[in-house]
Amino acid sequence: MGRYYPVMLDLAGVDCLVVGGGRVAERKVEGLLNVGARVTVIAPRVTPRLSELARAGKVQHERRPFAAGDTASHRLVIAATDDARLNAEVAGEARRRGLLVNVVDCAPESNFIVPATVRRGDLVIAVSTGGASPAQARRIRERLEEEFGPEWGPYLGLLEELRPQVIAVWPPGAAREAVLQRLAASRVRELLARQDEAAVRAEVARCLGEEGKRLEPFVATAVSRALATLATGRVSPEAARAAQAGQAVAPTIRVKVGTRESRLALWQTEWVVNQLAGAHPDREFVYVHIKTKGDKILDSPLATIGDRGLFVKEIEEALLAGEVDLAVHSMKDVPTEVRAGLTIAAITRRADPRDCLLSRRHASFAALPAGAKVGTSSLRRVAQLKAVRPDLEFVPIRGNLDTRLHKLETLGLDALVLAAAGLERLGLTDLVVERLSPELCLPAVGQGALGVETRAEDKETMALVKALADPATTACVLAERAFLAALEGGCQVPIGALAVLEGGELRLCGAVASLDGSKLVRGERRGPREEAEAVGRALGEDLLSRGGREILTAIRVEGKSKA
Question: How many Cα atoms within 13 Å fall on the side-chain side of residue 26?
Fold first, then answer.
């Protein structure tokens, strides 16, 4: 074991090869799939379980013997046959290519090992005997599972949420370190395990001290979320206790959930999973983290990347490949034309759809001085706000919410414009000075609403998530998306829209603007909620006829000239 250096690998979307089709290979494949790897199995014969995974499209099975060159397109290789000579051949080729390789039951041939693991949320404990006794590793893992109960995941999630708040309140130094140390050494985990919300909040407040009182609303939300995760999460306390007592536990059905890795995306996914887990305790929800093009390209404004579905494309590909069963998206990121074979099975109740102005120096948008620097990555926001205040300077910013909030200081900005929904979900509303009215700045289509996407033929998963759908939000978002489709818009075009229900009637407001805000066409349409999409199309056609077509044509011509 002395030659191994322990690391944690991110294998989401990584091409991995398993040579062999027996029970050991099956266990290795299941482990790789659990962390989102793309798995190819090479073996003339495989177990019924591996055959089932291949039929479902979750693994690629090549029904043949291993051949020279098979490791070429992979990053990680596991040799899991019962033929020591073949395993050595696989390992030798993989090592010559500089790949990670593991040979089952043969540590000397391996340059990495696969440990037994205990998982509690973001806490992962790995146990290995270096191949000396896998059975002993499993026994140690079982003891650790008893010691580290199901409350550890929500506990660490709560500490993770509290940490950036502490950093924001306390400047670097001994005071900040002392607060973080008090939290880590506190009784929070023990009190979470008792599901005593009042006691948890009181303990956190004690750790934060007098200076932390302004974080009370955030703490209340974060503690409630941690308790909800524990009560209805992927491993329930009841199931854990039953298993430890040797009682029969109902079999679970595994559901793989595709999600981006940002804190906001994870919060949104966690919220959806909590709703589903509470209603379906027979399901075990497993996260598969997927990086999208929009996550990878952070040094360019979204409008210049020139691709629709920047934050959903790779996740949709994983859905179509059977690597995940459902995905949670912000509806504003979902193209109006959903990919063939997929469907938006539920649109959840909408949070505040408006945009917010955040500032440490100014009390409102109107109070910004001439020449003030305003940070936003959205052409839609820039165009609408320039139409009212052409005297402002708009600075493009990218990154997650924490990064953008940090740039308020590092870039010397006077203000930021961000979506209210994301700020509320992460408890980051301290700097909000104004929620911009739709009359000033219409939000993005679908802003504030979450969509749950599944495969169109997967009726079981569609039925699972159907209860999350909010009829009122669904009607409003469908109207907005039909409006956007009529204009053939995307993130490269400044288009805003907001639908609301007033009694049984749907009212839709929409706008399209030139990039510099000098031309802006707004309109409104009303109609029965049952005809939401027709209302959206009608408003789109109206705006096109009143100057919108010329604005869009000019934007597209300008875009081509810059390409």
Answer: 11
Question: Quick one: tokens of 470?
Answer: 């909010």
Place of tokens 């598969």: 288
Rounded CA-CA distance 535/406 in Å is: 41
**Consecutive H or E run containing 417:** strand 415-419
Within a 10 A sphere around the Cβ of 177, how many other Cβ atoms? 12
Strands of 495-502's sheet in order across: 495-502, 505-513, 520-528
CA angle 397/398/402 to nearest 5° reads: 100
Strands of 197-325, DSSP E:
253-259, 283-289
Written as six digits, the tokens of 271 are: 């919220």
pTM score of the predicted model: 0.58
Rounded to an integer, what distance in angstroms lies between the CA atom of residue 61 and that of residue 18?
A: 10
Q: What is the DSSP letter of 22?
A: S
Q: Which amino acid is residue 11, in one-letter code?
A: L
Pick from 262, 309, 259: which is nearest to 288 by CA? Answer: 259
- In 3-state terms, what secondary structure has residue 271? helix
Catalytic, out of 333, 355, 414, 458: 333
pLDDT by 10s per residue, the chain, length 563: 456 778 888 888 899 999 999 988 998 998 899 888 999 999 999 998 899 899 888 899 999 999 999 998 899 999 999 888 999 999 999 999 999 999 987 777 888 887 777 667 667 777 776 665 666 666 676 677 667 777 787 888 888 888 888 888 887 777 888 888 889 888 988 888 888 889 999 999 999 988 888 888 888 888 888 887 776 544 444 444 444 444 444 445 789 999 988 888 988 998 999 889 878 877 888 888 888 876 655 454 555 445 556 779 899 999 999 999 999 999 999 999 999 999 999 999 999 999 999 999 999 999 999 999 999 989 999 999 999 999 999 999 877 787 888 888 889 999 999 999 999 988 888 899 999 999 999 999 999 999 999 999 999 999 999 999 999 999 999 999 999 999 986 556 899 999 999 988 999 999 999 988 899 999 999 999 999 999 999 999 999 999 999 999 988 877 666 55
Q: What's the per-residue H, E or C state across 437-449?
A: CCCCCCCCCCCCC
Q: Rounded distance, CA 302 to CA 307, Å? A: 9
Distance in angstroms between the alpha carbons of the first and the last residue of the chain:
54
221's tokens = 């939300």
What is the SS3 assignment for 435? strand
> Is 542 annotated as catalytic?
no
* Distance from chain centroid for Cα 507: 31
- Closest alpha carbon to 477 in 333, 319, 312: 333
Q: No. of H helices and E strands in the chain?
A: 21, 20
Q: Are 420 and 351 in contact (CB under 8 A)?
A: yes
Q: Radius of gyration over alpha carbons of the chain, in Å?
A: 26
CB of 138 within 8 A of CB of 126?
no
Helix (H, G, I), strand (E, B) or coil at 256: strand
Helices (H), 297-357: 302-305, 313-320
Distances (CA, A) of 8 to 28, 114, 123, 356: 16, 11, 12, 38
